[in-house]
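dumping this here so i dont lose it
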């Protein structure tokens, strides 16, 4: 498929039923959702895609083709291309930000929203140091190349939980990351991650977002804990689930538990029971 600004996006559809769109995180791609695609494809029409900058999707070489706004618009473009008027939308980390921003602009197209590992970013007073750090990271990727960067990222704190639990899944994660584009990775860092607005600046909009929402984090994903407490406080129809001894890549670290919790949420929404369960 091709976006309005001319960027090709590779997208896949698996199974039949109500659409369920999975939006990947920064160090992953559509393949990172394999444990979910296989499970949920039995019950839903599972949609996945590679973000711009992630081959085989197009890799534009100018920073102007990468932004949080464009990442959110790509969510809608994929739904349009795959013929899904609305969908359950699940995003992890960078994908959670894209899903959230799409929901804020097009809530009528969202059946439910799942934000996993949403929180890497900065409070308003930390914006400039955070942006500078992301731009240094982008330059670092270009300097050392994708293979070396994948080796570093695979040993980072966000990946250690996966390595400890499943060395085979961790090795696959690393090898798939090596196949990413250094240009796309660097421009995603500088154009999307560095420039995205702080969650705290969106408080008024978030308080008006009454969509059924599941917030899912690992208790060892320290940068995500405070942001998710904030999201749980301001989103009027959200529940927070914290997985024990789990880091940032929750869907890969504990796929069976992740799938069970997500399936229970989706089923409650599909049967009109989600609001009934709230004690608030």
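and the seq i came up w/
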């Amino acid at each position: 498929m091709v976006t309005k600004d001319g960027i090709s996006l590779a997208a896949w559809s698996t199974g039949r039923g109500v659409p369920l769109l999975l939006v990947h995180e920064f160090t992953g791609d559509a393949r990172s959702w394999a444990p979910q695609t296989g499970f949920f494809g039995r019950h839903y029409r599972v949609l996945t895609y590679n973000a711009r900058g992630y081959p085989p999707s197009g890799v534009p070489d100018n920073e102007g083709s990468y932004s949080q706004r464009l990442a959110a618009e790509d969510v809608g473009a994929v739904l349009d291309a795959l013929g899904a008027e609305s969908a359950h939308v699940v995003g992890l980390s960078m994908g959670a930000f894209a899903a959230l921003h799409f929901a804020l602009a097009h809530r009528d197209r969202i059946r439910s929203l799942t934000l996993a590992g949403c929180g890497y970013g900065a409070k308003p007073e930390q914006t400039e140091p955070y942006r500078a750090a992301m731009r240094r990271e982008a330059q670092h990727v270009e300097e050392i190349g994708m293979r070396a960067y994948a080796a570093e990222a695979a040993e980072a704190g966000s990946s250690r939980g996966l390595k400890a639990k499943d060395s085979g899944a961790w090795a696959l994660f690393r090898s798939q990351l090596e196949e990413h584009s250094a240009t796309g990775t660097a421009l995603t860092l500088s154009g999307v991650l560095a420039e995205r607005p702080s969650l705290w600046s969106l408080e008024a909009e978030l308080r008006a977002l009454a969509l059924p929402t599941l917030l899912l984090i690992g208790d060892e994903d320290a940068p995500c804990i405070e942001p998710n407490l904030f999201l749980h406080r301001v989103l009027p129809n959200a529940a927070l689930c914290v997985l024990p001894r789990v880091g940032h890549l929750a869907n890969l670290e504990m796929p069976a538990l992740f799938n069970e919790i997500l399936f229970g949420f989706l089923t409650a929404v599909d049967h009109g029971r989600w609001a009934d369960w709230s004690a608030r």
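The two ends are 43 Å apart (CA to CA).
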